[in-house]
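Database export, one record per block. Field names are fixed; values are copied verbatim from the stored entry.
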Amino acid sequence: MNAEWFEDRPHEECGVFGVYAPGRDVARMTFFGLYALQHRGQESAGIASSDGRAAYVHKGMGLVAQVLNEQNLSPLRGHMAIGHNRYSTTGSSHVRNAQPYLIETVYGPLALAHNGNLTNALELRQELLKRGVGLSTTTDSEVMVQLLAGPKETWASGYSANGPKERWEARIRALMHVAQGAYSLAVLTREAVYGVRDPHGLRPLCIGQLEDGGYVLASESCALLTVGATYLREVEPGEIVRLDEDGLTSVHGHEPQPRALCSFEYVYFARPDSQFEGQVIHSVRQRMGRQLALEASVEADVVVPVPDSSTPAAIGYALQSGIPYTEGLIKNRYIGRTFIQPDDDLRKLGIHLKFNPLPANLAGKRVILIDDSIVRGNTSGPLVRLMREGGATEVHVRVSSPPVRHPCFMGIDMATYKELIAHRLDVEGIRQHIGADSLDYLSLSGMLAAIRAGAGQHSGHCTACFSGQYPVHIPRWLLSDEREKTLFEGVWGV
């Protein structure tokens, strides 16, 4: 689905959104927040809302605009809501795995939306099953819901709670002490919306304020602007924030660990108008392009990006090198959003379904083709051939990130070791495979310098997919190429 038959990009697991805004249509606001976060997941979407008495949910498979409409938004009543876009990493692509999850507990409704991946999800799942807790999905997110909802002996002891707010905060805090891996959560209860970020800050989450005093949570700041909220700050690693009638309250959740925000957020995932760590993504990507030009110069006539995510890096490369920037590929921006698979004749067209060359800008030119990453290597070759079809005399590929040599286990579908071309081949081998006249990558140190130039002295970033140095413990069985993308499919036989 989603035309992945020609994609060579990693996929983010999801985007989360939350809002507390009495007097506002929070379901509609959440719809537009999710619409702004659509790039983070296109498999399913959903919204859960609450009026303080009951909770309501609608979710399904597809894009936000395919799942949600005027008819199914209107029953989502209340003054607080959470929403979710999903791309599956742990858990198969199936409607039962769509989020948010909503269950009824002895303390009222509980809903959860999760971005990330728990590295100890299998152990937690088995523990719940041993205790007689029934599970209806294959995701680590449902495991988190059940841990939050379970009786006291199933989650922790030693956390006192005098009222509903303290009770949920204690349970979230206890969950944070058993959950390992990456998570940014939006949690909905009868009384409040909570935002939760793992102690390493692997996955992003930020806070915004509405003019009328309400508050918003989102995976990226671009969603805040879409709904008219003013960016306040990021949720800190290990922090719990509560949005309710008292406004915005910060609660200690877990001692912060060495910061490890996913560096691929800067390379590819985040929208260019979002900001992390006080810096706009577009500016960081331009710095990556400038650094790439310093490290990997080559004589050429034009700099051409692979649209759209590589455009800022190509601009940076052109500015630093003095070589003119131009468009050489025209992208069909909607082909990746169809759920209709091509027939055999159309499939043979391959990359032409997504890109067309622009001969007027390519003919007779030595081209530097800028890409943000090469993962499996299955589209770089066709793109190089497309440049030559457009009349390019030379094609020099430059990549604004280091070679991707290791899988991700923290919420990104990055492929397995055997699928990663940079794990199997060196740079010269990849160059021959894609048919470029030359190939070079941005160094790891160069990438980090570009990211951290505006991030401040306390920044820290996960580079595991490039370096193999994981910020959290990775169980041995996860490292095997024999593992399935969906860890628990064998349980369901799907």
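Remark 1: Residues 1-6, 482-494 have pLDDT under 50 and may be disordered.
Remark 2: The two ends are 17 Å apart (CA to CA).
End of record.
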